Amino acid sequence: MLHKSATIRQTDIALNPIDVSYIPHHMNEDALSEHAVSPPIFQTSNFCFSSFVELKAALEDEVGSCLYTRGNNPTVNLVESKIAALEHGEKAKLLGAGVAAISNAVMAFVRQGDHIICVADSYGWMQRLLTYLERFGVSHTIVDGTRTEDIERAIRPETRIIYLESPTSLTFFIQDIPAITAIAKAHGIRTIMDNSWATPIFCNPIDFGVDLVVHSLSKYLGGNSDIIGGVIVGKAEDIDHIVWQESLQMGAVADPFMAWLVMRGMRTLHIRMPVHYRSALAVAQFLENHPRVASVNYPMLASHPQHELAQKLFRGGSGLFSFRLKTHSVEDVARFVDSLSLFKRAVSWGGYESLVFPEAAHYAGSVPADRLNLIRLHIGLEDASLLVQDLAQALEGV
């Protein structure tokens, strides 16, 4: 039975039309596609040349030429150009996983003795990378990203990178990106931001002064839960440096078919994201009014403590947010999660499917007691009223 607070009023979720006029449409694919409506996949590992001179020229310009797909491939390069344009960057580099994008972006700009500042509650594999880098003499400081002064106080003479994730992965706190990048530039520090949550539809961190933007392509840019990939966007000089210093050596290659699937997903990105946003807002509003819910962590909710800042940074919000049950019992959390029928239990997000991930299931014994009731939802493209009904019936058992 639908809880009385589950009624979704259209006035609650009425949104201004999403402005997509900034999305570039000028990229000419004709030379690559032979006028095909859908550009072809160059599913090849190697490229051949008609002469010694051509081969020699390609070897001398491995970053700029199609010599071997580990470095360049026409399908991959086309997708890179589209993502770079969407993110208002000069150039992009596609890689084999989101964590590869993070690792390459970070490792290309640090060496022994350097220091990294990273916001708390960022992606777990980013924090594992920081631990990994300790063996090579690269130190780090984890700071509360909601307080810009904490980031400024953490800066050392050897600080080379400030890593941002806005909002953070499970608690969904945001950072004042323009204020932080201004501080970073004053100290000659490079900033990197994960923009997988908002996507270029709702935020362009480069416009706020961020140097490098990273994405997990398995999320919204791919959008169909069928690929693993990552991308780094920034100035051409920085991307070329990353290619030479990290990606060619580390070999996290972007497969051409994966790139083509990303391109296919990007064609509907500006249509999908407003739907995720409207549905997530409706579900979040239902949850914040439910008697068995303690709090909802969604920056686009008026009740979020950083809502005013969110409105300045984001043109809208994605389908990912978290909430807390009014219980710290793992048994209650498990009962709630297992009672859901429309939400699939899974760790990733960004596709059609609505998903649930309880932090209590994350690495037994490592979850703080005050976070055992934290549950992350991805609101997919299903009917929002059906999702609300599913949540309502599951909450009755808590």
UniProtKB/TrEMBL annotation:
<dbReference type="GO" id="GO:0005737">
    <property type="term" value="C:cytoplasm"/>
</dbReference>
<dbReference type="InterPro" id="IPR015424">
    <property type="entry name" value="PyrdxlP-dep_Trfase"/>
</dbReference>
<dbReference type="InterPro" id="IPR015421">
    <property type="entry name" value="PyrdxlP-dep_Trfase_major"/>
</dbReference>
<dbReference type="GO" id="GO:0016846">
    <property type="term" value="F:carbon-sulfur lyase activity"/>
</dbReference>
<dbReference type="GO" id="GO:0019346">
    <property type="term" value="P:transsulfuration"/>
</dbReference>
<feature type="modified residue" description="N6-(pyridoxal phosphate)lysine">
    <location>
        <position position="219"/>
    </location>
</feature>
<dbReference type="GO" id="GO:0030170">
    <property type="term" value="F:pyridoxal phosphate binding"/>
</dbReference>
<keyword id="KW-0663">Pyridoxal phosphate</keyword>
<comment type="similarity">
    <text>Belongs to the trans-sulfuration enzymes family.</text>
</comment>
<dbReference type="InterPro" id="IPR000277">
    <property type="entry name" value="Cys/Met-Metab_PyrdxlP-dep_enz"/>
</dbReference>
<keyword id="KW-0456">Lyase</keyword>
<dbReference type="Pfam" id="PF01053">
    <property type="entry name" value="Cys_Met_Meta_PP"/>
</dbReference>
<protein>
    <submittedName>
        <fullName>Cystathionine beta-lyase</fullName>
    </submittedName>
</protein>
<dbReference type="InterPro" id="IPR015422">
    <property type="entry name" value="PyrdxlP-dep_Trfase_small"/>
</dbReference>
